[in-house]
């Protein structure tokens, strides 16, 4: 158990798709065990307050909440994992070796207790505002392998400027793959390495996540507002025909995750 001496913090849950009551964020040290930092996620088993023994495993994705400011960790969005390494978690501090513009690395530590606490069993961040506590929790645990490689079928060219597709036909419109990802993607489109806005559109989707712990949603537009299908659970590993041609995906963790 980490010795996190967090002051209690009273917050009003932010508006979301469900109504959430006022909750109190309590000290992780006094209410959470098995705290770890794995694959960009802070993970812990936290008491729900239902009794003195019921815990829920939950996690907070850190890479979109921390940045490397010339060798110093800052609590803002900035993808620190791209320029920091040699991570360690001790007490409330996340310590990393981060690159500086001068060409050398600097060891920097960030006190996570300022923006992360246990809310009724859920580990949540208030960096973007008071957190809305989900009314239900998932029984799924953080996967040992959180990767989610994708393969697309029935591929065609898509571009907001249709002229690009006439100038850049795909040399191989068959099935192709995307490298494994391990992070939640709010809206990810597969862009061709060409000059101009050229993307792969696909009518079939295969998800190869070993853990089956992700739901991958497919969208027919680059803003991810027009959903044409999704793949999750036992559907993974097979090539699923979508309800229309998609150009982007959203990846949603099925365990308790604050993304």
Automatic annotation (TrEMBL):
Q: Which UniProt keywords apply?
A: Signal
* Domain Cyanovirin-N: residue ranges: 30-123
Keyword Hydrolase among record annotations: no
An example of a Pfam family matching this protein is CVNH
**InterPro entries per the UniProt record, alphabetical:** Cyanovirin-N, Cyanovirin-N_sf
Signal sequence coordinates: 1-19
Give the protein's recorded name: Cyanovirin-N domain-containing protein
Q: Source organism lineage? A: Eukaryota, Fungi, Dikarya, Ascomycota, Pezizomycotina
């Amino acid at each position: 158990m980490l010795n996190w001496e967090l002051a209690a913090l009273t917050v009003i849950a932010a508006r979301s798709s469900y109504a959430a009551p006022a909750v109190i964020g309590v000290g992780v040290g006094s209410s959470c065990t098995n705290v770890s930092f794995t694959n960009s996620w802070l993970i812990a088993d936290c008491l729900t307050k239902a009794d003195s023994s019921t815990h829920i495993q939950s996690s907070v994705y850190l890479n979109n909440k921390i940045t490397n400011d010339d060798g110093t960790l800052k609590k803002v969005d900035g993808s620190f994992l791209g320029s920091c390494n040699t991570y360690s978690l001790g007490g409330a501090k996340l310590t990393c070796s981060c690159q500086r513009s001068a060409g050398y690395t600097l060891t920097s530590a960030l006190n996570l207790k300022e923006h992360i606490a246990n809310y009724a069993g859920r580990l949540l961040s208030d960096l973007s505002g008071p957190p809305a506590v989900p009314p239900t929790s998932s029984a799924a645990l953080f996967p040992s392998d959180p990767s989610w490689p994708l393969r697309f079928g029935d591929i065609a060219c898509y571009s907001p400027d249709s002229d690009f597709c006439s100038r850049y036909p795909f040399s191989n419109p068959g099935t192709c793959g995307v490298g494994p990802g391990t992070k939640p993607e709010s809206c990810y489109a597969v862009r061709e390495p060409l000059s101009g806005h050229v993307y792969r559109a696909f009518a079939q989707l295969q998800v190869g996540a070993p853990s089956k712990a992700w739901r991958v949603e497919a969208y027919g537009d680059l803003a991810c507002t027009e959903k044409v299908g999704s793949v999750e659970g036992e559907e993974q590993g097979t090539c699923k025909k979508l309800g229309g041609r998609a150009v982007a995906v959203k990846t949603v963790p099925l365990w308790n995750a604050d993304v």
